[in-house]
Amino acid sequence: MSNHSQVVDGSLHEMDIDNRLKGSRLFNNNIAPTRIKERNWTSGDIAALWVGMAICVPTYTLGGVLTAYFGLSVIEALVTILLANTVVLIPLCLNAFPGTKYGIPFPVVLRSSFGTIGSNLPCMIRAMVACGWFGIQTLFGGIAVHLLLSSFSSDWASLGETGEVIGFFIFMILNLVVVIRGADSIKKMEAFSAPLLLLVSVGLMTWVMPRVDIVALLNEPANRPVDNSLWSYFFGGLTAMVGFWATLSLNIPDFSRYARSQRDQIKGQILGLPLTMFFFAALGVVMTAATPSLFGHTISDPVHLIGMVDNTIWKAVAMVLIILATLSTNTAANIVSPTNDFQNLSPRHINHTRGVILTGLIGLLLMGFELLKKVGFLDSNISIEAMYSGWLLTYSSLLGPIAGIMVVDYFFVRRQKLSVKDLYLLDGVYPKVNVTGMAAFLIPGSLSVFAMMTGSLAWFYHYGWFCGSLIGGALYALFNLRQLIRVPT
Questions:
Q1: Is 50 within a domain?
Q2: What is the CATH number of the domain that holds 220?
Q3: Structural domain that includes position 304
Q4: pLDDT per residue over 143-172, tens digit each?
Q5: Residue 201: helix, strand or coil by DSSP?
Q6: Which of 54, 67, 216, 230 has the highest CB neighbour number within 10 Å of its CB?
Q7: What whole-number distance in Å separates Cα of residue 324 and Cα of residue 339?
Q8: Is residue 381 part of a domain?
């Protein structure tokens, strides 16, 4: 049993918060351990969370990304998506354990392996990635808002891309308001949106199947040289698809801290993630294949696809659903984590609300070039699709070591026992900077950066998440072999 806490139901710990803890500059009420009464998320709630996050515009386009950028056939792409999301369940479920047991969020979990101050390095890497994704998803949501308003007003439609920019800000504010209201607000929104989004997805698949030659679609040749081996393309695509949720495999404690039990978090993730990702990506492939016969040309973006519908009512309904899908993904996947990560920098000065606003501002800055393009102030050929497909490989190679280190630290070094109170103290049992954790991260992280910048060690870059997580975890275990690990009892 960890110090300063009591065990409830044989597995969940609740910490007593005393005056010393309240006075620590590493503590505030928002990143404090959740009380037992706050841990009320069932497996259904967690499955709904994943359904809400998985059904989004980027998931819809994943099949196209794998076929166009990674040289896979349709069948190979769909198998890759299913396998990758099955693989990523492993770090997701394992890294959720400390959050569920102790009620602590991701930045606090990291204080064990990286140090109470050193944890800010991996936190900021995770936060910047989330802010970038927040900007991209908000851009999609803003386009949907623009098309929704355009279906009712020709004056608004005449604004063109300027209307999309205004829609961006409308959608951004909507996202921030939902998260500022707290975890319960996210839980209710996901519980409402998940079944609705699944129902609509099944309906769309049923509608489009008779309009596509499925046999011909599945037999389309891969977009790669005929003589080239499948495996290098497959593993590159697999790494990218694992990278799609590599971020959540780190900060899953931000949500598992509300789970009723380990059983609930494991069952919910297994039910909610792999099949949803596979089905919605498959829907994107089939819908995109149907667009040439329906509209005369290929449309891979569901937002603009719905914009082609002539019926005003159906277009409005579809846009509302796109907005809901993007909102459910953006709030949970791209705002919650950086909000907690920014609080970790200075808990006494950055609370939950300020963390949310800071996330929004950085996301806005990262999307500034795209917004300026839309209003005509910049001219650039950079596409959002190319940018985020490149990110999938780049950041997965950097986040892999963190995932490996977290698993090894909690399950092997700490043996699933943390002194929770000391995680919030500068003078506790955990160092300010855990040198072994930093070294285990920086070595594979440096190799990834070297491979990206020079083109050498291409295998390390293309298989970055697997290489990074295995090497990072192995190094952390090696560095701790000869040390007397203090395990609080």
A1: yes
A2: 1.10.4160.10
A3: 38-479
A4: 999 999 998 899 999 999 999 999 999 999
A5: helix
A6: 54
A7: 21
A8: yes
